[in-house]
Amino acid sequence: MNARWETGTANAHHVVVLGAGYAGMAAAVQLAARVKRRGGVRVTVVNAQERFTERMRLHMTATGQRLAGLSVPELLEGTGARFVRGWVTAVDADARTVRIDDDRVLPYDTLVYGLGGVADTSAVPGAEDHAYTLDGAQDAELLADRLARLGGGTVVVAGSGLTGTESAAEIAERHPELDVVLLGRTEPGADMSPKAKAYLHAALDRLGVRVRAGVEVAKVLPGAVELAGGETVAADAVLWTSGTRTSPLAAAAGLAVDERGRIVTDAALRSVSHPEVYAIGDAAAVRQGYGVMHGTCQGGMPTGVHAALSIDRVLRGKQPKPFRFGYYHTPVSLGRGDAVVQFTRPDGSPRRIRLTGRAAVRYKETVTASPWPTYGRMKKMPASGAFWPRGGRFTRVREAR
């Protein structure tokens, strides 16, 4: 059945938010809270599942730890926003419609595109078939079940970035009977200061994680990974955290995208080819004075809020303001009892300041737990979500050129 949905009153401006991740939820709650009393605007959130995925905690789910069940529809209650469950299968940027589950068509006046990235298992032969990922709670639960049944053997974590490092530490702590090997092109904590990186490596060593940096996985086999050069590493389970890819929907819709498939935006986070489309989070190529932002929760939520502020200003006949953001930290959990927090300059380069041990654990947990209550506060006080580091001269200098 091909159904074209009604969107409410004929003269209502319909804003559709695709994706209810960190950025999408920030955009939806912020905008719905701002336009609720004014009327004339309808906000719809489309997501494949009702459960909110705490991506920053998926390495915990992957080791069998139970997390709170956070419901997107429940959070949206009282905001006036509508929730639609379904997979987005196509976007028609010219007709301004979204196709859901191949049989429903949802029209929009303004689109907020927040379909984030997933693990790039297509880049290496065998990864799609033989490796686990942390793309969602169900994927993490599959890995947790596999680890619980092993009883011994070797787990290879492919990718030495933040996700791989946190996952390797968590698995090693929760499953001391397993041999955990962390493989990557770069050293874990490569972007940290020497002392923070040394602390991270000491923690991995204490947990028994074997780190092999400067290597590249060429193939994933049923019981091993093959490295470039032909060496094989035995593996009873492989977790793939090496690189991400974006949904091809944006490019297929004719939106201007970069080499990684991210929507290229202007200063207000609008698509440079289709200004009625705003791109946020991992789906957006947002340029700042220091370069293009990389996808993290600390930057994703501000893009969602700013997109909502921009849409609200346009609907009120005003010009949107440019988006500016500066990084401020890199928190890394090292199991449940240890962590390291590297404070950064706005461009992401490390400062000398860092936290380690229990203080870092408390800091990391506060950061990880903050999104959900932040959304709750925004429902009542939208302005509470509009504060983040603007980056100072790191984002201002090149704007003036």
Could you please describe the fold and organization of this structure?
The chain is α/β, with parallel strands linked by helices and 401 residues long. Helix content is 29%, strand content 25%. The chain has twelve helices and 25 strands. The strands form eight sheets. A five-stranded parallel β-sheet has the order 4-3-2-8-19. A four-stranded mixed β-sheet has the order 1-7-6-5. α1 (22-35) runs parallel beside α9 and α1 runs parallel beside α11 (371-380). It is globular.
What is the topological layout?
Elements: E1 3-4, E2 13-18, H1 22-35, E3 41-47, H2 58-61, H3 72-76, E4 82-85, E5 88-92, E6 97-100, E7 104-107, E8 110-113, E9 118-119, H4 127-130, H5 137-150, E10 153-158, H6 162-174, E11 178-184, H7 194-207, E12 210-213, E13 217-221, E14 224-227, E15 232-234, E16 237-240, E17 244-245, H8 249-252, E18 263-264, E19 277-279, E20 284-285, E21 287-288, E22 291-292, H9 297-315, E23 329-333, E24 339-344, E25 350-356, H10 357-369, H11 371-380, H12 393-396
Helix pairs in contact: 1-9, 1-11
Proportion in β-strands: 25-35%
Q: Strand pairing plus helix content: what structural class?
A: alpha/beta
What percent of the residues sit in helical stretches (DSSP H or I)?
25-40%
Q: What gyration radius follows from the Cα positions, in whole Å?
A: 21 Å
Q: Please outline the major beta sheet.
A: 5 strands, parallel
| Number of helices in the DSSP assignment | 12
Average predicted confidence as pLDDT:
94
- Work out the oligomeric state of the chains in this entry: single chain
CA(first)-CA(last) distance: 53 Å
User: pLDDT under 50 segments (min length 5)?
Assistant: 397-401
**Strand order in the sheet with the most strands:** 4-3-2-8-19
- DSSP strand tally: 25
- Globular, elongated, flat, extended or rod-shaped: what is the shape? globular
